[in-house]
Amino acid sequence: PALDKLKNKKIIFVVGGPGSGKGTQCERIVQRYGYTHLSTGDLLRAAVQSKTERGEQLNALMTEGKLVPMEVVLDLLKENMIKNADKSKGFLIDGYPREIAQAKKFEELIAPCDIVLYINANDATMTKRLLHRAQTSGRVDDNEETIKKRLKTFHKETIPVLDLYEKKNKLEEIDSELEPDAVFSQVRDILDKLA
Ligand code: B4P
């Protein structure tokens, strides 16, 4: 019944490689369209702060550039979606799904998404951006070795998700090689049609 509240809300998945610009675009989307932004990376980093055994395990996986267990991410998403349902017109789910199983499970438990924004930048660009961010981010995964592993995980686990939504005609590809405002102008063209 708590999940009933989520009916008729827009659900936008934002998918892209590490450092592709997902978080950057989501900030702009929230400002313009007011969707509720849920970044799985941010939710997981907050969970790590709790200093529990669970948090330690999550931190170890993220440091290895691996995906954390699907159930953990889904619980965090579900909890935060229900919490925000009454005041929200829709959800921007940033960093999810990262593997086929996540896509299927979300649709089964919550609802199908309306569209998937694929924030696409090449590996060299993503690496450069993350190494730049590393100078100030303090993130355990912003270092050369982990970045390589995150890219590998992206190609192996997440690219198939993009293929899945392409087949469902829900995939919208955004060229994220450009500067942030130019990237956002493509995002706007798509979200204006969705409103
Ligand atoms: P995330 O937090 O999602 O990390 P990310 O992929 O690096 O994206 P982020 O949003 O931070 O960076 P952005 O591209 O915006 O995930 C971290 C880890 O959490 C994963 O490796 C995994 O272990 C775990 N995890 C998360 N979700 C999970 C899930 N669903 N299942 C299992 N595990 C999960 O930006 C990067 C940098 O580029 C910034 O410094 C930005 O300023 C810059 N930038 C952005 N756009 C730019 C542009 N157009 N031009 C120039 N610079 C730009």
Automatic annotation (TrEMBL):
Coiled coil: none annotated. GO terms for cellular component: cytoplasm. It comes from the Eukaryota. It is found in: Cytoplasm. One of its GO terms (molecular function) is ATP binding. Keywords: ATP-binding, Cytoplasm, Kinase, Nucleotide-binding, Transferase. Belongs to the adenylate kinase family. Catalyzes the reversible transfer of the terminal phosphate group between ATP and AMP. Plays an important role in cellular energy homeostasis and in adenine nucleotide metabolism. Monomer. This is adenylate kinase. It comes from Rotaria sordida. The lineage of its organism: Eukaryota, Metazoa, Spiralia, Gnathifera, Rotifera. The chain holds residues 319 to 513 of 513 of the full protein.
